[in-house]
Amino acid sequence: MLKSDIVSLTESNALLKKQARELNEKLQMAEQGKQQKAGPFGTVKSLRTNLAVLPDESVNPRLSKLLKEIAVQNEVIVALANSNVKEMLEVWFTNIKRVGIPNYLVVALDDHIVDFCKSNGVPVYKRDPDEGVDSIAMTGGNHAVSGLKFRVLREFLQLGYSVLLSDIDIVFLQNPFHHLYRDSDVESMTDGHDNRTAYGFNDVFDEPAMGWARYAHTMRIWVYNSGFFYMRPTLPAIELLDRVAGRLSREPNSWDQAVFNEELHFPSHPGYDGLHAARRTMDYYLFMNSKVLFKTVRKDAKLKQLKPVIVHLNYHPDKFPRMKAVVEYYVNGKQDALEPFPDGSDW
């Protein structure tokens, strides 16, 4: 009964947060264009949350109809999948179902995945034929397929939906929508493994030849993971998708995660106009990467008691067996399920 009450209260809290956010957006819209006087010292707060775009159903009426049936409060989890990841896809959607998340959708990149999803009662969508996308979708490896998402997600945002993009090598243990802030254009999990690497730190570069000025202060942060992020339907978010998709098409040897971070973080400078997007780093113990799990959490008695929202097996190539071990440990309570695996990989 207590667990049921906690779930009910969590859902109510999420709804209240959404209503507060919508009211705040209306207030921002009313105040836009008005000049304001600055308040007393320490009281001034700039606007952090950009307004959502007006939905345009003409962009894709078929997808719009599907999202009206699936989305909850205009939010949906989206994953791209082809037949190369069928085994992991089954672990992915099985745990989403177990947690009780109704608003998720698989964008199938081949007909076999369409049939596989339908046979398992999984919401699925296949895009209209597109030669530029289809050739990569059916035969591409992880990085090639990963880059497609920046083109595919644009329509979701244009239709007015917030998207929680998920790679397939992720195990869901709680409903992520209960743990989002929704105050930024992009809210992303991190590849960082502690407070410094995840949230940023002052890294001092030492150049002895400079004498008195030998120490130069630099700012560092581990990259956002482009395999799990929440994106609101705002102009900066759509511009980010366009920038990344454009660069990936012009620079075929580039890595989508590197491009994603460069466009999101690099400031304006001569010859380059930076993106003006608000961003937030997710809690790395809740939205956990596999380096945090296997190097730190499983070896710490207190941290082992935490239950993450998701575990992303991004740091390890042996993804499928580690996904199954995560399920054994967190879902089935097998305390030694994580022990056979090394911290890193064998190669």
Automatic annotation (TrEMBL):
According to its record, how does it sit in the membrane? Single-pass type II membrane protein
Q: What is its EC number?
A: 2.4.2.-
The molecular function terms of the Gene Ontology recorded here are: glycosyltransferase activity
Protein localization: Golgi apparatus membrane
Give the keywords, sorted: Cell wall biogenesis/degradation, Coiled coil, Glycosyltransferase, Golgi apparatus, Signal-anchor, Transferase, Transmembrane
List, for all copies, the residue spans of the domain called Nucleotide-diphospho-sugar transferase.
Answer: 101-319
Q: Which domain of life is it from?
A: Eukaryota
**InterPro entries recorded:** Nucl-diP-sugar_transferase (IPR005069), Nucleotide-diphossugar_trans (IPR029044), RRA1/2/3 (IPR044290)
Q: Which SUPFAM superfamilies match?
A: Nucleotide-diphospho-sugar transferases
One GO cellular component, as annotated = Golgi membrane
| GO BP field | cell wall organization; root hair cell development
Q: Does the record bear Signal in its keywords? A: no
Q: Which PANTHER family match?
A: ARABINOSYLTRANSFERASE RRA3 (PTHR46581:SF3)
Q: What's the family?
A: Belongs to the glycosyltransferase 77 family.
Q: What is this protein called?
A: Glycosyltransferase
Organism listed in the record: Linum tenue
